[in-house]
Task: structure prediction
Amino acid sequence: MNPVALPILITIDGPAASGKGTLARNLGAMYQLQWLDSGLIYRALAFELAEHSWGSLTAHEQYALLSRLKEPSVLDNPRLRLDAAAAHASRIAQDASLRQSLLPLQREMAYHPPPPLRGTIMDGRDIGTVVLPEAPYKIYLTADPTARAKRRNKELQKRGTSATLTSVLADIEQRDHNDRERTTAPLTKAENSIVIDSSQLSIQQMTQQACQKLQQKGLLKPRQR
Ligand code: CDP
Result:
């Protein structure tokens, strides 16, 4: 990468199980971008904060904890994928001071994609609004709650976790409520976002729609340059 060139930044925000991770992975591969899953960072923090609240840690302990989040092994923990981790993440994510402390780390990771990657695609709830408001390409991906619950339930069944559609839907609705109603960095659509409703779309259709709209905004695929 040219040392003065800014990395390409794409943000994807939206509610739980709307397809953000799948879309980010696909677009990341097509446009040669690193994928940063900010939800995973919150899940990992929630895991580390099983016994202590963020506010009860000293500044030094908070710093040490944030530094550990840069270690790939911390984010690779399969237990972070469990719904219990997501529910805990959604509770700790309401802490304004914790969110504020995470900002420099998230921005640093986004601005330093490992070469030869050309930039970063980062997904979450507040990426286009708070973490990377300057990003030129923003997507808001949504889907109706039942479609999202069905997808999440399928995913859980594949992993051998037993859950009912009713309990998965209740969990998603609770997290939607937490994420939309919190006072700091609530889930909202950033201005100038590309909006995609994936309720009735296959993965391929969702990815195609996103690509088309990104290209309309001027993003070119590497081979077209
Ligand atoms: O994969 P899913 O969409 O179900 O959840 P996730 O992206 O892994 O996020 C887990 C939880 O972390 C969310 O319900 C949010 O409460 C919180 N989160 C957040 O507050 N801000 C972000 N940028 C990302 C996640």
